Amino acid sequence: MTxxxxxxxxxxxxxxxxxxxxxxxxxxxxxxLFATQxxxxxxxxxxxxxxxxxxxLFPERNVVSISDPADIRAVFSGSATVFHAGEGNQVxxxxxxxxxxxxxxxxxxxxxxxxxxxxxxxxxxxxYRSMIAEIAEDEVAGWPTGTAFRSHESMQRLTFEVILRxxxxxxxxxRVDELREALSGVIAISALDIFGWHSERLQRLGRWxxxxxxxxxxxxxxxxxxxxxxxxxxxxxxxxxxxxLLAVDEDGDTLTDAELRDQLITLLLAGHETTATAxxxxxxxxxxxxxxxxxxxxxARDGEDRYLEAVIKEAMRLRPVIxxxxxxxxxxxxxRGFEVAAGTxxxxxxxxxxxxxxxxxxxxTFRPERFLDGSATTNTWLPFxxxxxxxxxxxxxxxxxxxVLRVVLRRHRIEPDRARRERVKPRxxxxxxxxxxxxxxTPN
Length: 444
Ligand code: HEM
Hints:
By secondary structure, the protein is an alpha+beta fold. It has helices spanning 27-49, 69-76, 85-88, 93-96, 106-116, 122-126, 129-141, 151-168, 174-187, 191-197, 206-231, 241-246, 257-270, 273-287, 290-302, 305-318, 350-354, 394-411; strands spanning 5-6, 52-57, 61-66, 83-84, 149-150, 327-329, 333-335, 338-340, 345-348, 412-416, 424-427, 430-433, 438-443. It has a single domain (5-443), classed as CATH 1.10.630.10. The strands form four sheets. The chain has a five-stranded mixed beta sheet with strand order 2-3-9-6-4. 43% of the residues are buried.
């Protein structure tokens, strides 16, 4: 049972409800603490103020964080007209564009999502397996033996090659090489760089100017690829996302070049850093848990994918790559007896739910078995968000991660370079291992 009500249509719309409680710290301080420490701060604040709390953050200002799984579920399944995820994701607009599946809402979002879904579902997914394994073999074969290296960087290279192949159907050639270069610059942005995306003035200066130039170059390359592909005679035989999007769908719907550009860059960016980070955490946790590692190695040798999938799911629970998602309200709503005004950013706090002892036994322990014995439920495992905005690549990234883990564990024995686990480092949107998930490996 949840207490989420649309205030405009509720009989009690005229009653005065209290605003959610929350810290009274100045906006600037709250913003800095949120940007750098929310994985520590939010669990503490939710214990203190309860499952619905108000924050003041720049630039959204009115933010309500929610941590009760029933309320989160109600928000995820709430009306897409009332809960705007696209507006909640506005910070991504300067890079992903105004037409991106991530930054649009309602009718426009529905239309684009429908066009993007086929390559990420069912039979299409299974078709990617051997390509992923091949790319993983190539990457892992180049790992140095006996010396520490950052496995996160290796996973970034690998997942980028995979997503390039899925999106464009190719991962070699001069244009793709240049695109790889330009996009890796766009991805490696810090919180400071993000300010630059929102200010034309800053974009005339130093690092922001370089970032803007890189994005412009990436755009030129993507538009050139779209133009070439429009002229290709074999679209019907191709299975990559770009070719599928260029072919007319059953309702005769097609995307303009600008709409296509936004989806391609969204998939390239959303689809690779997230999976790379999840894999880096999984390798890191395995390296620090010898008994679980031994079971995972056996599973990799036996082709036992269920255990490997449980490993990656548990890594995503314990080390959420994305700590919270956002929905901007277009109308006042009531959550658990609190008034949430129109224009508020409601944030389901994925990381708080996944680390709470109320929902997971011994939550700080890395124990993949909880995904095999039924103790982890879908309501309390939310790394991909939910509802009509649930991650489009959820199935794909799980499949990719299992393929990669199998290749790594068959080929190498992995160890951490230090006994202590790495800290969590918030990197703009994702939460990564602070030292790059360093490993020492020896060939099997
Ligand atoms: C471990 C890997 C990944 C994680 C943790 C992750 C997480 C997320 C989250 C939390 C959201 C927001 C959901 C919401 O607002 O409720 C999202 C959306 C999205 N993700 Fe992922 N993602 C991953 C991999 C991928 C991959 C591989 C792709 C593409 C191939 C992808 C494409 C997208 C897209 C297009 C959306 C927007 C969906 C929409 O708004 O309708 N993601 N993802």
